[in-house]
Amino acid sequence: QVQLVESGGGLVQAGGSLRLSCKVSGGTITRPAMGWFRQAPGKEREFVAGISWSSSFTSYSDSVKGRLTISRDSAKNTVYLQANNLNPENTAVYYCAARPSAYFPNSVYRNPTEYRCWGPGTQVTVSS
User: Fold this and answer.
1) Angle made by CA atoms 64, 66, 72, in degrees to the nearest 5
2) Which of 44, 84, 91, 125 is deepest in the core (most CB within 10 A)?
3) CA-to-CA distance for 121 and 9, rounded, in angstroms?
4) Using the 8-state DSSP alphabet, how is residue 14 labeled?
5) Are 38 and 49 in contact, with CB atoms under 8 Å apart?
């Protein structure tokens, strides 16, 4: 069974940076496209960033563009989210997700319902 485990969350001051990691292990997802989502207290889970299986294409929510960068190391089955210049509004539980790309290695998926596998999440807290 496929497992996703996030790490790298924590407490950071406004203006600081974090690098989140998501390790995929067990089972097999054919050509996995990956995504990062977040959920703040009292709010719905929202898309943050996504990357295609080919790594050639990425997508970001408008609210994080320019401050977050998604990348992947396929040899390590790991996807990363580099977050810079964080602010208190970025406080949330961050989740990574995976889904097979089948015959579309360049596709990026933004809708959480399109993902099959999820990690338990990692808390990011930004203090002012």
Assistant:
1) 85
2) 91
3) 9
4) T
5) no
First to last CA, the chain: 40
Looking up tokens 């609210």 gives 63
Question: What is the model's pLDDT at position 30?
Answer: 83
Euclidean distance between CA atoms 40 and 65, whole angstroms? 18
Q: Token pair of 56, please?
A: 């050639």
In tens, the pLDDT along 23-76 reads: 999 878 888 999 999 999 999 999 999 999 999 999 999 988 889 999 999 899
Q: Which amino acid is at 94?
A: Y
Question: CA 64 → CA 19, 32, 83, 90, 117, distances in Å?
Answer: 14, 23, 9, 9, 23
Strand partners, 97: 35, 118
As a whole number of angstroms, the distance between CA 53 and CA 33 comes to 5
Local structure of residue 65 (DSSP, 8 states): T
